[in-house]
Structure to design on (741 residues):
């Protein structure tokens, strides 16, 4: 179990070229840095993608992680976002063992700003986007209903505006 | 100009100033071998692709220019991976071109297909797969730029067969599209000033000189730094020759088999000035105990080396030569230059260690130490040094012979020592010597090799004979995988497991002759000098000397793996000497 204080959010702008993810994943693997989550998608400039990595390392190792990442030729820019200075967001999808008509459950989803996006006879699929901490809390609550499938995207982030 | 991709590749290599290609053709790279016939580039046909890689490394290390190798896809490509890993560890600029199956077949497990860019991602500075022949000129320019700038290193270009056969409008270019590639800039003046201040106030400073000093051609700047300050010098395995061994202030090589004065001076110093060195575990021993009381100035061109092993007090991210020149300016500007006086007691202490704890072995100083069949290997190295020109290039493999070469040869010039430091690649010597001789044909090139190493890559002597590359190989034949034997002797209660090789199997003289070389066997210590002189006189073909050396001989000093450098074991004959 790793403590959240070891979690650091690193975002990298990378060239949109074949093999970039292999290079990043390979670097983390061979140097023993632990990836908690990794999200990647093209930016508004199609030549580049943005990679958001939540990495589990001691703070004194973080600079080493950044320096090693920065050495990759395809990594154009890299920043560490202090959680206090970043707007973070993540998406959660979950299938929960709740049938239709469970008002208490529907209220719970509505209260956190989630959406019910599908219903089976005995299951319900919900979606929630937001700060990873809120998702953690929501996930915890869903557990009491029984989660049969869960998918989270990993955090993405941008620096706060002020 | 309409060209095929293959022609464009060769043209692009010519434009980069490539004079020599070490390679071996095969199916996927076949189209590229046709325009080689019409090119000014000399192609040297190796007998195994690993040899092409190490030859390119040897060439690069002695010339400072990138070495280039070309091989086919699949096994050709995988055979050169060891050389890429070796070059990556030792920051050697080589450019490797691999053939690849046609882009239309990639991913189908086609004949001789491997994902070589994937396989080599972790052992190259960068690699490229060319999928459009119009990119050839630009990617070749980028590859040479990346290999040779910043911290140098190996790069690979994967070249599919249909890219080679495509027809394009070729345009020469030196343009790069590398938005993510930055190299270190000028040294930070504030950091330089801080470093100068530390150097002025330190009581026990020592220079820890690494391979970066050689790669940045900082030898003269380093000599000036020592002249200005009188600070004692140590040179790592990768930096032998960066500062002349004959200089009194040179304490020798630090590390596991380093010189006692070098290892101990670093342990006891209060200021460690690391120049282009990376605090390798073979230098530091147990890291927590390494130079415990020292403040550290760390100059490195690679920001990621700063603080990787040891957090420095003053980091300087810059090219070594620029940084040392700035330090020199800062020091020379001081009107009352008093460092030399200030540290005189410390230097006396270092000189005392140097006098009392030299590299030694049984019979050192005698005219013919050892007995018949058991020549002292260190003596062979000393005699080689005595009988060869000052600018001779020495190449070695990996193991005991490598350490004896690094210890007992007197290195006087940068780029006169070629070895496999970081990866420790057995079999490095023969092909690397070949490459070194191609790079510096006017210099004498000797390889000191082990019998185990020699058996791994000896086939490149066929290449050397066929191409008239007159390298000279001294096999220190102790009939064992000697370094492994030494560890089994010291740490496994002399239980020797799978280390015996036999002095006679193979017959090295016959083998040498079969490969078109002159073969000489020396069993009597008295014949060592004559054999070396005979070899020196042969200039039209390679020479191999099979020196029958003492298999009991061990490398001293030694810091056992994982131990503190304080616990350095000196040669038994010096064990009584007060520390």
């Amino acid at each position: 179990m790793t403590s959240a204080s070891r979690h650091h959010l690193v975002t990298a702008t990378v060239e949109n070229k074949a093999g970039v993810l292999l290079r990043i994943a390979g670097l983390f693997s061979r140097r023993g840095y632990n990836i908690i989550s990794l999200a990647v998608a093209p930016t508004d400039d199609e030549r580049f993608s943005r990679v958001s990595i939540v990495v589990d390392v001691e703070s004194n190792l973080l600079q080493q992680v950044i320096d090693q990442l920065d050495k990759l030729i395809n990594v154009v820019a890299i920043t560490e976002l202090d959680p206090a200075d970043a707007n973070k967001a993540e998406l959660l999808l979950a299938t929960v063992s709740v049938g239709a008509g469970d008002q208490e459950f529907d209220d719970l989803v509505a209260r956190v700003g989630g959406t019910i996006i599908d219903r089976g006879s005995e299951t319900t699929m919900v979606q929630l986007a937001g700060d990873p901490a809120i998702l953690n809390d929501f996930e915890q609550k869903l557990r009491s209903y029984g989660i049969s499938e869960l998918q989270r995207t990993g955090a993405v982030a941008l620096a706060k505006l002020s | 100009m309409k060209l095929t991709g293959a022609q464009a590749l060769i043209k692009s290599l010519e434009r980069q100033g490539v004079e020599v290609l070490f390679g071996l053709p095969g199916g996927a790279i076949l189209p590229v071998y046709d325009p080689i016939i019409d090119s000014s580039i000399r192609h040297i046909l190796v007998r195994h692709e690993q040899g092409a890689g190490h030859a390119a490394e040897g060439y690069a290390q002695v010339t400072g220019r990138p070495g280039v190798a070309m091989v086919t896809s699949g096994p050709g490509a995988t055979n050169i991976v060891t050389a890429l890993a070796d070059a990556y560890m030792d920051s050697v600029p080589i450019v490797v071109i691999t053939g690849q199956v046609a882009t239309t077949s990639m991913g189908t497990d086609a004949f001789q297909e491997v994902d070589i860019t994937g396989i080599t991602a972790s052992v190259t500075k960068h690699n490229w797969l060319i999928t459009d022949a119009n990119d050839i000129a630009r990617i070749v320019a980028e590859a040479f730029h990346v290999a040779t700038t910043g911290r140098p290193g190996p790069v690979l270009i994967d070249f599919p067969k249909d890219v080679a056969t495509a027809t394009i409008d070729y345009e020469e270019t030196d343009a790069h599209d590398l938005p993510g590639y930055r190299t270190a800039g000028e040294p930070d003046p504030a950091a330089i000033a801080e470093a100068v201040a530390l150097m002025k106030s330190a009581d026990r400073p020592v220079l820890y000189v690494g391979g970066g000093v050689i790669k940045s051609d900082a030898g003269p700047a380093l000599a000036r730094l020592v002249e200005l300050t009188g600070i004692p010098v140590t040179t790592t395995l990768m930096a032998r020759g960066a500062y002349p061994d004959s200089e009194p202030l040179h304490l020798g090589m630090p590390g596991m088999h380093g010189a006692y004065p070098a290892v101990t001076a670093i342990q006891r110093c209060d200021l460690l000035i690391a120049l282009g060195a990376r605090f390798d575990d073979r230098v530091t021993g147990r890291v927590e105990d390494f130079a415990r009381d020292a403040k550290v100035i760390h100059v490195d061109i690679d920001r990621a080396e700063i603080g990787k092993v040891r957090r420095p007090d003053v980091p300087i991210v810059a090219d070594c030569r620029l940084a040392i020149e700035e330090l020199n300016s800062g020091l020379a500007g001081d009107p009352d230059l008093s460092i030399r006086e200030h540290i005189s007691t410390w230097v006396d202490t270092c000189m005392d260690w140097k006098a009392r704890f030299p590299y030694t072995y049984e019979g050192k100083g005698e005219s013919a130490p050892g007995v018949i069949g058991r020549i002292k290997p260190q003596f062979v190295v000393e005699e080689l040094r005595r009988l060869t020109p000052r600018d001779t290039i020495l190449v070695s493999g990996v193991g005991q012979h490598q350490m004896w070469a690094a210890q007992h040869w007197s290195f006087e010039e940068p780029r006169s020592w070629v070895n496999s430091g970081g990866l420790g690649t057995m079999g490095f010597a023969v092909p690397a010597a070949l490459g070194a001789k191609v790079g510096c044909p006017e210099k004498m090139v000797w390889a000191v090799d082990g019998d185990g190493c020699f058996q791994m890559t000896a086939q490149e002597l066929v290449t050397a004979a066929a191409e008239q590359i007159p390298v000279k190989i001294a096999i220190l034949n102790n009939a064992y995988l000697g370094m492994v034997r030494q560890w089994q002797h010291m740490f496994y209660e002399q239980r020797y497991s799978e280390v015996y090789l036999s002095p006679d199997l193979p017959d090295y003289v016959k083998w040498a002759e079969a490969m078109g070389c002159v073969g000489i066997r020396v069993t009597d210590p008295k014949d060592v000098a004559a054999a070396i002189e005979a070899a020196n006189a042969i200039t039209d073909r390679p020479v191999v000397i099979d020196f029958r050396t003492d298999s009991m001989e061990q490398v001293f000093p030694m810091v056992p793996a994982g131990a503190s450098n304080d616990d350095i074991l000196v040669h038994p004959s010096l064990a009584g000497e007060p520390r």
Notes: Chain B is about 35% helix and 15% strand.
